Every structure is written in structure tokens, then in C-alpha cells.
Amino acid sequence: PQLTQQLCRLTTQSGTTLFMTLLAAFATLLYRYSGQSDILIGSPIANRNRSEIEPLIGFFVNTLVL
User: Fold this and answer.
1) 7 pLDDT band (50/70/90 cuts)?
2) Which residue among 5, 27, 30, 37 is least enclosed by CB atoms within 10 Å?
3) Residue-wise over 4-37: b if at least 16 C-beta within 10 A, else e?
4) DSSP readout, 4-65?
């Protein structure tokens, strides 16, 4: 709980989301282990951004490289 509170405080202070803060920490960890400066991380993004496709059944997910 204490670490979560500290992460939420850091997120609020930096004006980002918790996802962005944790993604930056993960990218830093990968950099430290690999020594590579170009780190590509894939994140699944749901493509239900229009109300008319919300009731459709199917797998509408793309992987976005960050």
C-alpha cells in the first residue's frame, strides 16, 4: 500500500497516468538489463472508439508499439 501511494503521488505530481509511470519504469528496467537505448514495448489497444461498434462481438485489439 505504501509503494502504491508513492507511485500515485509521483503520477499526480508529474501530470501523467499510472500506466505511463509504470511503463517508464519498465522501459528503464529493460534499458538497464539490455544496455540498448532503443526500447520498443508493445501495448494492446482496444479499437472500440465509436459507439456503433460497441455491441459487436469480436476481438478488436491492435498492438501499438510505444
Assistant:
1) very high
2) 37
3) eeeeeeebeeeeeeeeebeeeeeeeeeeeeeeee
4) HHHHHHHHHHHT--HHHHHHHHHHHHHHHHH--S----EEEEE---SGGGTT--S--EEEEE
Question: Cβ contacts of residue 42 below 8 Å, gap of 6+?
Answer: 63, 64, 65, 66
Comparing CA positions, the residue from 34, 38, 6 lying closest to residue 22 is: 6
Q: Which residues pair with 63 in a beta bridge?
A: 44
Mean pLDDT (whole number) for 18-40: 94
- Which residue bears the cell 528503464? 28
